[in-house]
UniProtKB/TrEMBL annotation:
Matches recorded under PANTHER family: HETEROGENEOUS NUCLEAR RIBONUCLEOPROTEIN A0,-LIKE (PTHR48026:SF28), HOMOLOGOUS TO DROSOPHILA SQD (SQUID) PROTEIN (PTHR48026)
InterPro entries: hnRNPA0_RRM1, Nucleotide-bd_a/b_plait_sf, RBD_domain_sf, RRM_dom
Matches recorded under Gene3D superfamilies: 3.30.70.330
Ranges of residues in domain RRM: 6-85, 97-174
Any Gene Ontology CC annotation: catalytic step 2 spliceosome
Keywords: Repeat, RNA-binding
Keyword match Repeat: yes
Biological processes, Gene Ontology terms: mRNA splicing, via spliceosome
Protein name from the UniProt record: RRM domain-containing protein
Pfam families membership: RRM_1
Keyword Repeat belongs to the record: yes
Molecular function GO labels: mRNA 3'-UTR binding
Organism encoding this protein: Sinocyclocheilus grahami (Dianchi golden-line fish)
Amino acid sequence: MTNQLCKLFVGGLNVQTTDEGLRAHFEQYGQLTDCVVVMNQPLQRSRCFGFVTYSSVEEADAAMAARPHVVDGNNVDLKRAVAREDAGRPEALAKVKKIFVGGLKDDIEDEHLQEYFSQFGVIEKAQAITDKDTGKKRGFGFVYFEDNDSADKAVVMKFHVISGHKVEVKKALTKQEMQTAGGRGGRGGRGMGRGSGYGGGRGGYYSDYKRWVPRTRLENHCIRVISAGLCDSENWSNGYWILHPCFE
C-alpha cells in the first residue's frame, strides 16, 4: 500500500464549509495530515469540493467505510483521489466493482489473483482468462469486488507485482460504460482541461463529482460552472448536465 490511498476527494460541499469545518468532520476517523476546501481565488468563494489526507491507509479506509457523510447539512461524495495524469481516462469517471488486470503470465492462476487482490477488499470472483478453444492463457484477467472503493484502491496504485511479475490494473468497463464515461469528460476537451487538476500545489488530483440542477437554480444562484455536457431531460438547465456547480 502507498500514501496514494490516504488522499480522499470530498465533493458536494456546502459553500459555507471551511477548512476547519471539513477537518472537524473527518478527523474523527483518524489523524489528518492535510485538509483543504478548494477555493475560487478571484472570487474568494468555495468551489464546493476539497480533499482530506490521512496519516495512514487504515484511517482513510475507516472514513470510506463510514459513508455516506453529511457535512454542514450536505450529503457529500467521498472517494479516492485520482492522479492528474489519469484524469483523462474514461474509467476515471466510472464507479465500478470490476477491474481488468493486464500483463498476466501463464503461471498466474485464479487463486493468485484472489490472494493478491484480497488486500484491497472482499472479492466475489477472480479470473485469469483463457482461450475457449485452446485453453491457453490470454494474458489478462478480471477481479470482481463487493464494493467499488476496493476497485478504486487497486486502480489508484495502477501497477502491481503478482508472483514476481508486473501487471497493470484498470477499471473494467463495458462498451456502453466507456461511451458514457467518455461523454462526461468535457466537450471539446475544455471541461477536462479545467477540471482535471484540483488543488494546485497540493498534488493535482481529479474526481468526477457532478449534480443535476434545475434551470432556475442554475441561473439564479450559480457561482461558477467548470464544465457542461448534454442531458436528455427538458426539465434540467436547457438540456445540459453540470460538472462541479457551486451554489450560494
